[in-house]
Amino acid sequence: MANWQFPQAFGWGWLKRRETKGQRAPTQKEMANMGWQAIAGGANGLIFYAYQHLSEPHDDPEDAFEPAWARTKAMAEEFKKYIDVFLSIDPAPAVTSSNGDVAVRTWRYRGDTYLLAVNCTTNAQTATLTLSENVGKLISSDFGPTPKMDGGMLNVTLGPIEYVMLRLSYFVEHLRCPIATGRTRL
Predict the structure, then answer these.
(1) Residue 186 CB: number of other CB atoms within 10 A?
(2) What is the β-pairing status of strands 4-5 and 45-46?
(3) Which whole number is the average pLDDT over 111-118?
(4) What is the greatest pairwise CA distance in the chain?
(5) pLDDT over threshold 50, residue 100
(6) In the chain, which ranges are E strands?
(7) CATH (residue range 91-175)
(8) d(CA 182, CA 186)
(9) Rounded to whole angstroms, how far apart are CA atoms 72 and 9?
(10) CB 3.0 to 4.6 Å from 108: which of 24, 92, 120, 130, for a disulfide?
């Protein structure tokens, strides 16, 4: 089922209203965190709002179109790498977080389990993440801290608005090889 979310990519100050004067646009990290929170909450599509506000004139040079659009595109690249993971229909193990301020979600794609953990606050957070099944011993991370597995649980510490995407597997990537019939593991 499609679930699209529309995180903010503009500054309310751009609307030139008295009550929004001086409000800034979100930083690249803040935009990414909003998107990852939406993904962890069940979204499988994102539309960062709103392009027309990016192209309007702004008082702050950092909120001008060129730097604002560059930030938005760079942030979107993080999500682009995981499109196939987000849309995977393979049954994934359930995950729970011991800390309600750390949002989590899992996927299974090509035999690996992907686990997203997002700190939804501006304070550092720790959480124990418990998976419903054994998902492998090898943990890799594209971004964010790589936690240690401890008795089937992951203990993660995330800085303010930090997030991590983990891949949990039984085999190291360099042991995988493509063959004529598709990917296989040795």
Answers:
(1) 6
(2) parallel
(3) 94
(4) 64
(5) yes
(6) 4-5, 45-46, 95-97, 102-109, 112-119, 125-131, 138-143, 148-150, 153-158, 163-169, 176-179, 182-185
(7) 2.60.40.1180
(8) 13
(9) 7
(10) 92
Query: Cα dist. 50→14, 21, 47, 103, 150 in Å?
Result: 11, 18, 8, 25, 43
β pairing state of 125-131 and 95-97: antiparallel
pLDDT greater than 90 at residue 115: yes
Q: Structure tokens of 105? A: 């979600």
List, in sequence order, every residue forming a beta bridge with 149; answer none if it has no partner: 154
The amino acid at residue 106 is T
Domain ranges of the chain: 4-80, 91-175
Q: Percent of the chain having pLDDT more than 90? A: 45
Write out the two tokens for 78: 């993080």
Residue 102: exposed, middle, or buried by beta-carbon count in 10 A (0-12, 13-18, 19+)? buried
Count H helices and E strands in the chain, helices first: 4, 12
At a CB cut-off of 8 Å and minimum separation 6, what does 178 contact? 184
* Token pair of 180 as six digits: 């004529």
